[in-house]
Design goal:
The protein is of the alpha/beta class and about 375 residues long. The chain is built from 13 helices and 12 strands. The protein has helices at about 10-15, 15-25, 45-50, 60-75, 85-90, 110-120, 135-140, 160-180, 185-205, 210-220, 235-250, 285-295, 330-350; strands at about 30, 35, 50-55, 80-85, 100-105, 125-130, 145, 225-230, 250-255, 275, 300-305, 320. Strands 4-3-5-6-7 form a 5-stranded parallel beta sheet, sandwiched between helices. Strands 9-8-10-11-12 form a 5-stranded parallel beta sheet. The chain has a two-stranded antiparallel ribbon with strand order 1-2. The longest helix is centred in the middle third of the chain and has 23 residues, at about 185-205. It starts with 7 loop residues before the first helix and ends in an 18-residue tail after the last helix. The protein binds 5-amino-5-deoxy-1-O-phosphono-D-mannitol. 5-amino-5-deoxy-1-O-phosphono-D-mannitol binds near residues 107, 110, 157 and 246. 5-amino-5-deoxy-1-O-phosphono-D-mannitol binds next to α4. Keywords: Aminotransferase, Cytoplasm, Glutamine amidotransferase, Repeat, Transferase. This is Glutamine--fructose-6-phosphate aminotransferase [isomerizing]. It is an enzyme of class 2 (transferase).
């Protein structure tokens, strides 16, 4: 069943070149610069008049939702909030009918996410569910259902379903951005071309996984890890930290890099590896400054950077490379690197990778 892999998690990481292709199959209209989203029961007028979107999710799906917020704001010009479903349901959300709630849930069964959708509906919001499981509870509760089509995921740690969620969010954002006239056909085409390149680029990362394995082994005995990133790489940092803590039991924090000096910098010593997502984009120089900041506290810096980036070698102790991609789409590639880093760290520590202690694949109780 594991098709020769030692763990389901490793198998599922390796399935990503294919699962991503399944996620976007038949949807990317490269020549027209549009994305076909027939499953979205929102007509163009409704999309144009959307005032706000709220994304609700838990765990890894919540991390995907942060990227979703940035994409909807940048590509579709829709003010977007992202809320942890368990907080949303007991808060006092101010919602009205011209708004959209987007629930992201791999299993479609997470109790808090289901409750958040029910609560949004009671305010008259339209609801969209992004889920991987056909016929799951969320599909009976939402107006529109967008399937991520990543195939069944057995490992408790979400991997291929996370990247499928990201791809779905790109497609939704491009679709809404074109409908609202926020991005041009050429801008959409550029993104679509970059999305289509991702499967091959992920394969390239997988083919060179030995370097990631060596890096993981080198730091597997550490007690604490930091992951830092800015803007689109911030959710990548959060997800990298979540993966590491859940399967290797190493304490890991994901931080918006600019927040470091507001407290956590006090924890950085030569014993704390810091993973910095330093891919090319408009926050590149800023993350370099953050790397210098932690280097000054003697931290070991592992950078995730582009293949052609020579400069980064001056700052980082170790560099894990990803192929060049659009600033908006590179988070998918960086995430795969961090999945492998977590996997090989847990392997070096002989942890129960597919069934980490205390965790369940779907959390059906609140
Ligand atoms: O099925 P869901 O996406 O609603 O699950 C939400 C979280 O429980 C889930 O993403 C969890 O954080 C992951 N298994 C972590 O890898």
């Amino acid at each position: 069943e594991k098709s020769g892999y030692d763990h389901f998690m490793l198998k599922e990481i390796h399935e990503q070149p294919t699962s991503i292709q399944n996620t976007f199959a038949g949807k990317l209209m490269e020549l027209e610069g549009t994305v076909r989203m027939n499953e979205l029961y929102l007509n163009p007028e409704q999309i144009k008049h959307l005032r706000r979107a709220t994304i609700v999710a838990c765990g890894t799906s919540w991390n995907a939702g942060i990227l979703g917020k940035y994409l909807f704001e940048k590509l579709a010009g829709i003010h977007t909030d992202i809320e942890t479903a368990s907080e949303f349901r007991y808060g006092n959300p101010v919602l009205c009918g011209e708004e959209l709630t987007i629930a992201i849930t791999q299993s479609g069964e997470t109790a808090d996410t289901l409750a958040a959708v029910r609560s949004s509906k009671s305010y008259g919001c339209r609801t969209v569910a992004i889920t991987n499981v056909v016929g799951s509870t969320i599909t009976r509760e939402s107006d529109s259902i967008v399937y991520t089509r990543a195939g069944p995921e057995i490992g408790v740690a979400a991997t291929k379903t996370f990247t499928a969620q990201l791809i779905t969010l790109y497609m939704l954002a491009i679709h809404m951005g074109r409908t609202r006239g926020v991005i041009t056909a050429d801008e959409a085409k550029d993104l679509i071309v970059n999305l289509k390149r991702l499967p091959g680029q992920i394969q390239r990362i997988l083919n060179r996984k030995e370097k990631i394995k060596e890096c993981a082994q080198q730091f597997a005995d550490k007690r604490d890890y930091f992951f830092i990133g800015r803007y689109l790489n911030y959710p990548v940092a959060l997800e990298g930290a979540l993966k590491l803590k859940e399967i290797s039991y190493i304490h890991a924090e994901g931080y918006a890099a600019g927040e470091l000096k507001h407290g956590p910098l006090a924890l950085i010593t030569e014993e704390t590896p810091v993973v910095a997502i330093a891919t090319k984009g408009h926050t590149y120089d800023k993350i370099l400054s953050n790397i210098k900041e932690v280097k000054a506290r003697n931290a070991v810096v592992i950078a995730v950077a582009n293949e052609d980036d020579k400069e980064i070698e001056k700052y980082a102790d170790m560099v894990l490379r990803i192929p060049a991609s659009h600033e908006m789409t590179s988070p998918v590639l960086s995430s795969v690197v961090l999945q492998l880093l977590a996997y090989y760290t847990a392997l070096a520590k002989d942890c129960s990778i597919d069934k980490p202690r205390n965790l369940a694949k779907s959390v059906t109780v609140e």
